[in-house]
Amino acid sequence: MREWWNRFRAWATGRPGIADDLAEELQSHLEMEMDSRAGRMSAQEVRSRFGNPTLIAEHARDAWGFPSLESFWKDIRYGLRAMRRSPGFSLVVILTFALGVGVNTAIFSVVHQVLLKPLPYPHGERLVRFGESTAKIHGFSVTWVNFQNWRQNNHTFDEMAGVQFTGRTLTGRAEPVTTTGLTVTSPYFSLLGMHPLLGRLFDDTDDRPASAPVIVLNHRFWQSQFGGDPHIVGTTLTLNGSPFEVVGVAAPLWEPWKVDYYLPLGRILGNMTDRRQHGSMRALGRLKSGVTLSTATADLDAIMRHLAEVDPSSESEHRSSGVFVAADNIGDIRGTLLVLMGAAVLILLIACANVASLLLARNTARSGELAVRKAIGAGRLRLVRQLLTENILIAGAGGLAGIAFAQIALRLLIAAAPQEIPRLAETRIDLPVLLVACGITLLAGLAAGLAPVVVVNRIDLTSALKEGSRSASAGKQRQGLRNLLVVAEVALTFVLAFGSGLLVRSLIAAQQSDPGFDPRSVLSFSLQLPGRSYTTPETVTGFYSGLLSDLRRLPGVVDAGAVFSPPGAGDNGDWFYSIPGRPAPAQNELPLSLFNTAEAGYFQMMRIPMRQGREFTAADRDGGPKTAIVNETFARTWWPAESAIGHQIKVGGPYQKGDLLEIVGVAADVKQSGLDSRPMPEIYQPFAQQHNVGMTILIRTVGNPTALAPSVRRLVRDRDRNLPLQQVGTMEEALGAGLARRRFSTVLLTLFAALAMALAAVGIYGLLSYWVTSREPEIAIRLALGARPATILRWTSLQALRLAAAGLAFGLLGGWIAARTLKDLVFGIPPRNPATMAAAALAVMVIALFAAAIPSWRASRVDVARRLHSS
Hints:
By secondary structure, this protein is α+β, with helices and mostly antiparallel strands. It contains 29 helices and 22 strands. Strand 1 and strand 2 form a beta hairpin.
């Protein structure tokens, strides 16, 4: 013991902070030495020579790593002193932890709010939305008759309500206001647990055809349009020219859909008796406790089969199609968020690998201190406990900084994300998220501290205590473990770089894809004519024809046209059709097409090429032959080897009543559902034969199209002061908005990849710096024997490249797996894209060389004389 004490005194000279700490360790060890001798004495001798045996047992437990409360606090105090002695090192590790924990906390808070948090309704997990279905199509509208049978005869629902959207214009105020309402049956309010803030919600007496027109206002609409007027109940609002009495204001409640008010659905549809008459209604229901979705579907299907027996019709093959509201609300955003969550986890793993490498380097520098602790009797568990305590303390500091970073990142995330992501605006770092953040911090601290703990027991005591010795720091096992950590960092970084590369190329491919028309310098806006004012086809066509003529005369206008569903607007209308003369398909296999309405001259104005035939003309008028223009996809489907011109289309099934349309033209495919979508079959009918009250007006200009908006508003107001313009904007903006979600995920994953590359660069730099420092004597000898600095530079650079190459080998396997995960987010290129893999590998190699540059340069400039003299 005296020999070890002399070595300790020699080593601790100039290290007063560490000497004080180790003095405490030595005192505990000497007590433990007496305790070990006491184990061979009788109980009487122990009590007489060493006092309380309980105290002796506590010293023994502490020496073997089983702490008392007092020694636990000693470990914490020592860990805090260690952080204070190395502020630069501690700051780097804390920031690295903060990045990993912060990114994961921010992304998880979004995942928790959007995917995991239950809906704020009574038994929201049992809330289901139902539609009708066929063998090919699922979830289309429910007829009023079928819904009534479902509601009255089912055995699997507590309650069921019908819901249908409506768009109406609010007039009688300073400016007309476009509104979105929800027509519902009265059980809707109890399904969602809604309560009145003012007045009442409507009930079954309001939900009948002969009832008085009443309206319940949404809380947000009441606040924004009426300033929260407490006397609003009892007043009358005018929607599309019809009066509605306000009977209540609903208390604030988040809904999956954004609406302004509620109207009774039974008052509108209650007189319908035709089971085939579809609108846009869906059924909303809450399953009984213990009932599964498949059981409920089978229950409703049994009702549909019974209806087919008692009332056979063309829809006898229709069945039900249900989805949980929570899942339906999330839609395809689930895949995007899970990919981002996976990327955040990879960032955390890279951060942990970086911290583990830094801790290995620090423990190498502390090998003398750790050797003394082991020499004076600290057991294996004692050293492990001390190191883990230090790691968890520093991880805790990083976790606190990470939560602060997550608050900032979350605000930026919400501001940048597409607003259609449900419940995103309500995302907060609440208690469950904080608990997860604490768990992430603890696991990260343990994971990062595991590598240093593994090698701590292989310290060479003799060489570690020799002044100036580096043999302990150059152990092959420790160096090999740091190499392995850097290889893992490079592999994970490659996976993120490859994933972000795929999304970047997909975004570029979508932006550069041909939309099928020229969107430049085109202003668009929508109008909805109220039925009470425009009651005949002549008044509808007269209004739009006159407005288009006026618009074409405005200065700077090249042309103007009208269409029901403009490009990029999505599926705003589809229906069944059949081809006369072809074998009749089964009722549940009827083909489906988009149906659109276009004014004469629309294709020329939008510069949509006509592949065959002609555009609509004045000859395609009301009362004349029914005509249609189809897109290329439709024509190729039915007439791949011949012209489609002159063939006929029947609206509806072969045994249904429907118009026969003669094809007069084939237009180029248009990206109707966005730039990253594939064309569907589409049928255009002439506006003069359809008379849609709602149309989108498109104006091609010679300059900035938005500068024309005030003039357009004046023209519309001159024709009808009660008509508001809806969705005013340019076509380029509309197409860009369709890529908002793709752009969001691409930007975020690219930022993650950049962060991963920065962390990997730090890891490679730190490893190579350590490697150069530990091998300075060898480098000095090589230089002394005639090696050139360029040779040393190449030698050290190859060390970094070998590690990067090994990481890329594993990363290629991870990228191959990641491509399958990302396939639903990739557009225009194959997911397993060799060019993208090569670009990602090149980027990682460049980062590795950049990180290795400074240590390699330093290695080539070693002072040979000084280094050999000090050795």
